[in-house]
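Structure request: Aldose 1-epimerase, Rhynchospora pubera.
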Amino acid sequence: MAEIFELSNGTITVKISNWGATITSLLVPDSKGNVADVVLGFDTIDPYMRGEAPYFGCIVGRVANRIRDGKFTLDGVQYSLPINNGPNSLHGGITGYDKVLWEVAEHSKGEIPSITFKYHSKDGEEGYPGNVSITATYSLHSPNTLKLEMEAVPENKPTPISLAQHTYWNLAGHNSGSILDHTAQIWAEHMTPLDPTSVPTGEIIPVKDSPFDFTTEDKIGARIDKVPGGYDHNYVLDLGEEINGLKRAVKLKDPSSGRVLNLWTNAPGMQFYTANYVDGVAGKSGAIYLKQSGVCLETQGFPNAINEPKFPSIVVRPGENYNHTMVFEFSNDS
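Returned structure:
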């Protein structure tokens, strides 16, 4: 049964469903103590289950992002996946991990509030090879930090695995309209340019002197008009300092409230997506979410990496584990 669970530590309160391991609400204070829900979503679980969410808050997989023409070859075997985004396969196919019920393995309200979800993905599910056991644990490790640890273990066949957390952030509050006044700093000197169907061409190019350069903090909307359609691109996380095996990916800031989000990860890439395809979705508390009313910071393996030998491999073989950690650190810059 699909439910919504709560984790709270007195500073942060997050609601998460076992449907898609989805964050539905995240309350954080600003410097004056004003609390806002900073993620887009729905009040109840029903719209998620009806497929009305453009991937709000969920974990996507078995492979996040796009695979060209829904095809790949692994160890000499060709696999075909459902086509659900132009000519390509997106976010694991028609029924990806965002559209299934996960098992609640553990829910702790102790000193470190946490919840662990498990899902068993079967051989042939959405065209992917092999059985895979997936675990996702959300925890509030410190007063201002939400941590997500994703693990996947292939049981009997090699398979591509690349999970992503697809929350749409608006640090002014989910119902505050455009995020184009938010500032972003991305710890990436390179990105992967796209073909006309939004799949990487295979090149890795510098962001310097382009509208994709967020190596220093800048307004998201400052140069977005030079990016046809808006940002929906994979950044190569090659700049960040490493702490405890995690590197800094991005700093997002809302100037109106002063809320800041720093994201740390061990993934090689991050999709920076400015909600270009959100168009009048009826969300929480009567909010209507329009284009660019949120921003996604999806740390991931590179899109279409299974077909690009130059990209970091996303193939995981039996006996190996896939591990992907994200730490969301909230603060205030008043």
